[in-house]
Amino acid sequence: MNKKGSSLGLAILSALGIFIVGFMFINFIIPEVSTFRSVMDCVSASTISDGTKVLCLVSDAAVPIYILGILSLGIGIVTKRFIF
Predict the structure, then answer these.
(1) Whose CA is closest to 70, among 29, 25, 33, 22?
(2) Residue 57 lies in a domain
(3) In the prediction, which pLDDT does 13 show?
(4) Residue 8 pLDDT more than 70?
(5) Which of 50, 53, 61, 78 has the fewest CB atoms within 10 Å, measured from its CB?
């Protein structure tokens, strides 16, 4: 008998818990990104140097990368139950 489906519910609940906790932390990350952008003066693109432009781009990508990380972790937990 295949026992892969016996722990599928636990995997889905674990992934759901990771989603909830992970998305709760986004509220703490967004103000920090906004503060970083204001300190680095990312609004006026004509006055900043090339290195600062790269830092502004990385700070803009911080929240989407964090969201993708949470999603990939949750999906990886669920799909692990199907493979192993």
Answers:
(1) 22
(2) yes
(3) 87
(4) yes
(5) 50
